[in-house]
Amino acid sequence: MIVQFTKKPTGDIVSAITKTMEGRSLGDLVSIHEAGNGLLVKISKLGTSTLEFERKDDGEFAVFTLTTEKIAFAHKAFKSEVTAKLVHVIEKSGGKVIKA
After folding, report:
1. Residue 40 and residue 70: Cα distance in Å, rounded?
2. What is the DSSP code (8-state) at residue 7?
3. What value does the mean pLDDT take over residues 71-75?
4. Is the pLDDT of residue 94 over 90?
5. Which pTM was predicted?
6. How far, in Å, CA of 86 to CA of 50, rounded?
7. How confident is the model at residue 49 (pLDDT cuts 50, 70, 90)?
8. In the chain, N or C terminus with fewer CB closer than 10 Å?
9. Distance (Å, whole) CA 83 – CA 36
10. What is the domain count for the chain?
11. Residues 92, 85: contact at Cβ < 8 Å?
12. Which of 43, 39, 28, 30 is nearest to 74 (CA)?
C-alpha cells in the first residue's frame, strides 16, 4: 500500500486520521502512531496485526509506503474489509491511496 498526503509533519497526519476514526467502529479496533520515520498501524481484537509505513517526502507530498505487514490469524479473513475501511478513512483525512 502506498499513501500520499500533502507534506506536513507526520504527527499532524496521525492526528487527522485519528480524528476521522473517532466515533467509527474502526476507531475501536485501529490505532495509528508516529514511529521513527513513518507510521505504525495496529489492529487489535482477537489478536494484533501491525502495518509499518516508511515516509519519504516527494516534492510537496509526504508518501508512506507499507514496508512490513504482520496479520494475526484471526484477522486474515477480514483483511480486505478492514483495508477498504482504512482507505476510506485515509481519503476522508485528506490523503490519497496510490496503491491499495
Report:
1. 11
2. S
3. 92
4. yes
5. 0.91
6. 13
7. very high
8. C
9. 23
10. 1
11. no
12. 43
Domain residues for 85? 2-99
- Please report, for residues 42, 51, 58, 88, the alpha-carbon distance to residue 62 in angstroms, rounded to integers and kept in the order given: 21, 17, 6, 18
**C-alpha to C-alpha distance for 18 and 90, rounded to whole angstroms:** 10
Q: What is the CATH number of the domain that holds 49?
A: 3.30.310.80
pLDDT at 46: 87
Give the percent of the chain with pLDDT over 90.
Answer: 80
| Residue position matching grid coordinates 494475526 | 72
User: ∠55-89-26 over CA atoms, to 5°?
Assistant: 110
Alpha-carbon span 80 to 57, nearest angstrom: 28
